[in-house]
Design goal:
32% helix, seven-stranded antiparallel sheet, alpha+beta, SH3 type barrels, globular
């Protein structure tokens, strides 16, 4: 296990901020969303809306503050999905239309596209590391049998929640593998999560009145 970053968590321990939970059940909107506009002009009951959601099994990190969990002030836990770096890279490549036909290329054309992808990938990873890609946070590998030796990418744009008591019971019943981020790395992830949603794209246009003093 990567020294200083993580600590193993027993099944009996309560949920804490920074817990990495493998195989966590979550409920979310269907990703395609093709039928979602129909909701606008319809009066729907619970059975109708069921077709717009899905259950999934994801790897997630707990972001609810430790003090709220310890004092039972958080009936629901805030979760964000994380990926192993190799899985995230495959998803990153799939976003670019230029690379969807790479299996049909060869020679210099293939080399040129691979070089372009590598430049974009390195730029993106540098942004995740230094904070200029605020949707994501790169953290060190856990380096154990369950999580592997790859660094992890936390996706702040994919937020889920689950009832706290239900999640704790689910972890115990299903023996879900779990480790926790330790301070200051736990705080680093939480800070980046808060920064992602507290950004203000506003120029206050203040006068330089201080120059007269």
């Amino acid at each position: 296990m990567t020294s200083g970053w993580y600590q193993e968590v027993s099944l009996a321990e309560p949920i804490d901020q920074g817990d990495l939970i493998l195989g966590c059940p979550v409920i979310s909107w269907r990703p395609d969303g093709d039928d979602l506009p129909d909701i606008i002009n319809q009066t729907l009951n619970s059975e109708d809306t069921a077709r717009f959601v899905q259950s999934r099994i994801l790897d997630v990190v707990v972001l609810t503050q430790t003090c709220d969990l310890a004092q039972a002030k958080a009936p629901r836990v805030v979760l964000c999905r994380f990926y192993r770096l190799a899985d995230y890279k495959r998803m990153f490549k799939s976003r670019f239309d230029d690379y969807k036909d790479m299996d049909q290329l060869a020679g210099k054309k293939l080399d040129a596209k691979l070089d372009k992808l590598n430049v974009q990938w390195k730029k993106h990873c540098t942004g995740m590391k230094n904070g200029s890609s605020p949707n994501y946070c790169l953290i060190e590998a856990v380096d154990n049998a369950s999580h592997g030796e790859e660094q992890l990418v936390v996706d702040f744009s994919e937020i889920h929640s689950a009832p706290t008591k239900w999640l704790e019971q689910t972890i115990q019943k299903r023996s879900l593998p779990r480790v926790k981020l330790l301070p200051p790395y736990r705080d680093y992830v939480a800070h980046n999560f808060g920064r992602m949603y507290s950004r203000v794209g506003l120029d206050p246009d203040l006068r330089d009145s201080w120059q007269t003093f």
